[in-house]
Batch of 4 targets.
Target 1
Amino acid sequence: MGEAALSDEALMLKYRDGDADAFDLLYARHKDALFRYCLRHCRARSSAEETFQDVWMRIIGARRRYQARAKFTTWMYRIAHNRIIDGYRSDHSHRLESLDDDAPGAAPTANAADEPERRASSAEQALRLQSLLAELPAEQRDVFLLHEEAGLTLEAIAEVSGVGRETVKSRLRYALSKLRGALKDAP
Amino acid sequence: MSPRERDEQFLDNYLEGDSELSRLYRRGAEQQPEAQPGAQLDARIRAEARRAVASGARARVVHSPFARHWMVPTSLAAVCVLSLGVVLLMPEPDGEPGSVSEQPREAAQPARSDSAPRDVQGDVRSEVRGNAQGDASRLQQAPAPSSAAASVKSDTRSQQPAKSEEKRKALRSEQQDADREALQAAPRPAASLAEEAAAAAPDAPSPAAALTFRPSASKPVRDDPRAWLRHIEALLDAHRQAQASSDLRAFVRRYPDVPLPERLADLAASMNGPPP
């Protein structure tokens, strides 16, 4: 069986045991999604690159302790999530919103007036979605990205975020509601 | 359907992958080639991953899972084997290291007939012990080297469990040969005493073993300063000058406050330099 058919966990174990090629394969599988996850959170590309590199450095550094107890993606995105939280805390320009799950918060407003042709194509709508996503509270954005980029379930997102499943579900519900409403309301 | 129920329905569909929002998001990701790490960043991370593997290769050999798993049990087994080996090879505590000889106790045991039952041997030995104790002082004065204490001690030793019977037999036969030679070479008084002991207990261990000279004091003798001094004097009587000097030096080192008999004081003075 070739390495390409191996699971993420098996590849990470091989890398832990000294197979650098296994790491290359693992990296190729996840680099784009992880980079987008970092980019959507950090907004600035340089900051996203720094975060992205730091996450992989932590994975490399923790390889000896790695045990396939959980999915590799859950482990990796937990590292990324923690790194991003640290970034938020150290960066005063970004404040981690304290999310009240009972209050949906301000719906993101689209600067639609500057984009008269935004509905002309789905491509434009896709771009607009990126803009709306950036305006979501960090926790809601995080939940949405963990599902979209990492493909994590509610339970896995809860594990990554360190909160309960229902909290994750509530955050996701609010995020979807806001995004859907903003896209629908856009002229 | 209330807005809340609509949201729930939308959430369920979204989680199942049936969502226009998801498709829109993925399309946006595809449209953003810049939303990928650069080639330089890729190369940097991969190089770091390889460097980490190369630098950790040695540590991995030492701390491989197999080694980690077996390190402790193997160490314990090695310690047990070494300890057991040392205990088996170690001579029984008979004397102290130094000038005092550390003969295995088997070597000091008198020869005896292996055909005799053990209980008979024990009875006979107790009789011999009485004779030997009585003769001990005379034996010390005899020209031939002798040590009644050896035969006395051999009796107590015989009560301890035999650890390696074969080894003892081999040593015993050697001892018998040596005893026979010593007996033949011994002057008459020692030989006659041996014959008396043999006559008293024909099946007892050969008294010749009791006549075998032990060149130095055993631990019980050393623990008693007076007995040790007598032993040193016996050595002098047996013309064992070097052994007597060595023992005297050890005696002075151990009992610096015990006054020496005149004869031994002269010897101590005649030794090279002051006694340590």
Target 2
Amino acid sequence: MAPVIDRSISRRRVLQLMGGAAGVATLAACGGSGSSSSGGGLKVVGAGSQEAGLRKALDDFKKQNSDFDFNLSFSPADQLQTSLRAQLAAGNAPDMHAVYPGNGSAMSMVQLSKANLLADLSDQAWTKKIPSGFKGAYQQDSKTYIFSPGTSVLGAIYNKKAFASAGVEVPTTWSELLAVCEALKKKGIVPLALGAQTPWVTQLINYALVPGTVYAKQPDFDDKMAAGSATFAGSGWADAMTKYLELQKRGFFNDNPNGTTYEQATSMVGTGKAAMAVQVSAVLQAYRDAAPSPDDLGMFPLPATDTVAENWIPGGIVVGIAINAKTKKADQARKFIEYCGQPDTINSWAEAVACVPLYSDGEPKVDPVLKPFLPFLSADKAVPFMDQRWPNAEVQPTHFAVVQELLGGRTTVDGALKKMDEAYRKAT
Amino acid sequence: MTALTTPPLKSVRRDSVRPVKRRGSGIAPPWWFAAPALVVYALVMLYPSIVGAGSAFTDWAGVGEQRSFVGLENFRQLVHDDQALGALRNTLLLTIAIVVVQNGLGLLLALGVHTTIKSRMVLRVIFFAPVVVSPVMVSFLWKYVYNPAPDAGLNAVLNAVGLGALRQDWLGDPSLAIWSVAFTVIWQCAGYSMVIFLAGLEGVPQELHESAMVDGASTVARFRHITWPLLAPAVTINVMLSTVGGLTLFTQIIAMTNGGPGYATDTLSTVLYKQAFVYGKFGYSTAVALVLAIFVAAVSFIQIGYLRSRETAA
């Protein structure tokens, strides 16, 4: 009789092997978890960049209202799109949550209000004080759906010690910027830190340049785009992207920007390894945390052209909060938003996240670092962040991707802008 | 003196090694024993999948009630979508790399620790350890290893051993990023393949090897004619699991590159995720998901048919 061989894989044997190995290995894999929530009550999910201001407003409101309580958590920008949107789709969204102003993102005010997911705040007093130029960021069909404490500006965060060691001053024209970068490079300091592996960082240099290359010459560019009489290709966007690439070709970025993250770039500027990073003022605190002293850092508008008068700045309403249209705690949420709209709260929130307050009864309290930007805002030379007027949520991620492709040498400026035009023309 | 003759070594036939029936009576248990599990499966898996599949024929944005029936429009769009077609190519490349290298490495590791060396248990644990770590944690760990700075991570190691010329932008170079991700997946999952191969190896009777050794068979000949045919079920399981894992790879890509630089590491899974949650096109995303599910099922059926026939032939 032939010997019988059991050649099937024994389930017990596999489990024994896996279990034995897993038992030992799991010991090394155990870890803790943290949460930023603070008890029950009104459930609030905010944007990570707004944490300092939103947390302070909630804490202060709770001190004044003993029956008020909240449960607060935060998400980084990339996760807001997914976790919150999934909750909205499933009908279990928090009572109040972060929403991007204007349009152009799947979590933007226009997209969510169109789907009847946001509560109308138009009856609140503060909404009457929204400047006309910013109404598009807060309102859809003349109804206000979000609260945001004010305007964030975008420019170059720079390390003063690095500038001093290279003997350079803040530039006011594009040529001066190139000269400053050259001097820093000769000194062995990376002129511009760029963490382009983090998608949203890819857009910032273009956003800093197009106010000068596009909007200073064509203030109605967005209207022309919407009407179909203008395109990204052939506009000042091509000039901006060419300048973006010029910075790379001259070796002014850190090595391998596509493989570098936002956090790594932040650390480079904070420690003085790099001299500048083009960023929004809302993240100033992260840079200050990375620097030995917060006074080491300053900020200036990034000059896009050699004509000083044409160097406009980007200044957009920062990510805000809105009330879930289906919440059962609408009264509590509305009272809190009403409180946020008071001048003192707006000032305090804006100061905490380094932005310019939406409005102020007297002299606005502004982080001193932002002072170089104020003349542009008062002279109406500030342009909202470009995506806030894009018609769908596809243009912005396309912009992220084509910039990475440009930096990786996988496309040309014309090819990149063509893809953005294709995305722009897709249905809303 | 009688000459010792050795018959040629032949592959072990399946009919000679049929598994022992363990069930005493030989009577199958009533099918309704499975009913509770089937009900749960139907409620948690089948029903949502069927309802969700309906979205593939609409323009639903993923939030709100507004949606219109668009017929096959989403599928027509998919055929002309450069991003999806690029992602399909990336998915296939990743799958091939993972199936071949992960299983090859898993087999070598299994053969290595299926010996009498003293440290075999420790080595098994070490090789299996990455499997029990969360893929997100592994991805962040490797993101650190792949830091492009010359004085950090893998590049620093290359510098230290005098191989600085080999420094790379591991995740930032569009040509290299996909292979860097593949390596991470293989590093984590090779131990899983190893354990399955190991279980198969432990089912190979030592007597066969001893007889073959007496007959003068070399190590390679014994592997080819004894070990390899008897490992056929393990190969089937490993190839199936790694193929499905490769075709649906998502976590490591999102955590390490988010599909970038540009679209260089996008897979079908990341494309359907982005369409749903970033672009707000839930209907189109569901169409991509439906096509991916059918594609994975088709590949799996073809594969299992071939591998089972190979088992029978062995």
Target 3
Amino acid sequence: MMRSATRWIVAMMVGILVNMGVLGAASAAMVGTQDALRADHRAEIDRVLSRDEVRQELLAHGVSEEMIDARLSAMTDQELAMMANEFDQLPAGAGVIEVVGIVFIVLLILELVGVTNIFSGF
Amino acid sequence: MAALLGGCAHLQPSAPPVSGAELVQTPFFPQSAYQCGPAALATVLVDSGAQTSPDRLVEQVWVEGRKGSLQPELLAATRRAGRLPIRIEPDTDALNAAVGAGYPTLVLLNLGVRWLPVWHYAVVIGRADDGWILRSGTTKRRWMPHADFTRAWKLADHWGFIVAHPAHVPDAVTTEQWVRAADDLANTGHADDGVIALEQAVRRWPNDKLAWFALGNARAARGDWPAAQVALERAVSLGPDWTPAVNNLVSTLLELGCPDRAAPLVGQLRASSADYARQTVREFEDYAGTARCQLTP
């Protein structure tokens, strides 16, 4: 609830700033290369929103604060959106250390019946 | 055990393949703990000539709370090294072509099953008749049977990318793919590398308006307006009806103090309903610059 309300307010404010020309390209009326390849003009708004969300996710997942800006700056709008919308679904590993025992047994069974072959080298 | 479940896994030891191409020069960085992301990324970056190491990449791509690295961050970290990450088409033909062209390819694999994934990043460096050769985990030269590899790669949606140097356009890449990658590089703090990549683009595709348009924009973003004008002029001559290019050329001509040169193009912008076109028309009409036009007629 709170989060979506905040999101809405930020979107509105960013929209105003973009229209005022406070945010956006240095050279006022130049069209960005990839903006010319898409129809919508919400890119700037989405970018600012995604950036903030990804910052919160990275902080919450143990990335130290001084590293975060450089990491965010290297991401495209699309990557920021992907990180913001799917952070917990993006593949990176199980991350469920407490169920390692059960996962281990299930994977071992899969291995024994020939579905996987992860353990052969262990 | 933690290593197995934390975003990386160890593949079984291999038997050497009998034939097939292999990029034997590809460096190898054995992963520590479950950090296959930094290790695999270092492999492809160093292979492209970038100076980095898994340790240095940990602070760029490691997410402690997920015990692994996320795909968008691997692509972003590639840009931080001044390189262009190029996603390959999701099939083994494209993978084979990439490796055949000399590009070790970073792939995501799921060594588990769909409902219990064991995610792992590895670097494909070669093809044997009946399998694939990888730099993987702590093993420098891992051979994986074709069936096992395609299964694990398919379970990871056939995700993979190569690392391109700005001065070298890979053969298999499309104009739009390269231009987007170069534009992304330019927009993420690597303006010079982005311009280099786009200069290569117009060399490779001299009759493509998108390549010239992108080059013009990247030059303009650096404040190099005369060079931007040359590229945008070319984009407009190749695509006279393409409003974004006309718009940016008009803006550039105003920037250069040449409203007379811009005048014949403004009519086309008046006919457009795009916000940027209206804004440019306003700027043209309100133009009050006194600088002398720096262009020869």
Target 4
Amino acid sequence: MNQKDADLYNMQTLLNTVKGLPARKMVVVSPYDRATLESISAAHNEDIIMPILIGEEKRIRRSAEQYNIPVNNMEIICSDEENIIERASSLLLEGKAHFIMKGMVRTGYFFHVLLDPRFKIRTERILSHVGMFEITGKKRIFLMSDAAINILPNFTRKIHIVANAVDAAHKLGIGHVKVAMLAALERVKLPAMPATLDAFLMKKFAETGYFERCEIDGPFAFDNALDPEKARTKGIGGDVAGNANIIIVPNIETGNVLYKSITCIQRQDAAGVVLGGTCPIVLTSRSDDFKTKLNSIKFARLLIL
Amino acid sequence: MKHTISCLVYNKPGVLAKVARSFADEGINIYSLAAGEVEEEDKSRMTIVVDTGSEMVRRAEMHLKKIEEVIKLYDLKEEELIAMELLLIKIRVKPENIPQILQTAELFNAHVIAVSDVSMVLSLASEENRVNGLIKMFKHLGIIEMSRSGKLAVSGLD
């Protein structure tokens, strides 16, 4: 894909570039629900992944049979409930799997085990969730972070969140990334709106060159970050205004509401992965549908070699 | 040795000068002085910190008690008082220092109250040693200007 134009493809076109890549091993923790099994099966059929399912084997097979999803051609590792995540993490550590997907298991417990120092998943970065969305009717995707992991990140954590998202954008083929730091308005307002301060200072911090091949600006209200016309109407200048590839939300509530409003109300496609570790982690909401889960697998696959 | 003297006075012109004179007459340097209205509008409380011997302070207190506007006088013992100081500090903002500035502010629970491309103003209301600590941390980052309220104190809880 043309490096400069990756952001101009619609989401499915971008995600489907995964089909030209060799399949990678994805270990799935507790794949008992329909949407997870269907998404794994579809990704397997499209030669995107080689799935390794870990869980109570009988339960996996029972669910697969119930939903008429063939799993006979997939590797299944039977494990007691309490050892599932540990077994999956060991596969990553041993290089027997390239990335991991969370199934029917509590997110907190999943990360508690996965991030145990024994498994060396952590890097110098913190983990953060990166969501991918498409602007309706336009050939444009954008990434949003962090809607799932960091509750109220301070400035240092936001540096990691930005860095993880920028890395993802580069790997997707976006050459020069435009990052918009979101708040509720375009100027610093203290002490009422601390998010405006972080946004302003992140732009300033970017002058150090810490983030490669990207431009950061802010604070922006949501519409002015993504809609060039709205930005023009409000007289907001700069390259990022209206053309952001990445939006960084100030807290998990903003991100979560935005994510759910796009997927639940607008019924738009979405994908989500957790980055900052040694491999992408496919983390979707238990309520996410098959398509979102499949998109997320593709998104994660695009981010690894 | 530091003494914290709380002086409840009538809010009238010239009182501050008279109080200051009581210390000056004994050759005592005032380390900090904070004054403001109390719950009754016609009265003010001055919190004065001096660094000198107890005998010198006792003599200054004798002078103070003779001032007609002075209503009450307390030599607050460190272990019995609840005290705080307000610091406003303007520091230079260089992009590479931003994380350190914000981490330090977070550590001390200081708040950024104004920012520009080149400088930032933070406030901290805390105990004296924490205020000193924050200043020390910011010193090498480039303090442009700062202002301290001096110690504000009330006597401890009953």
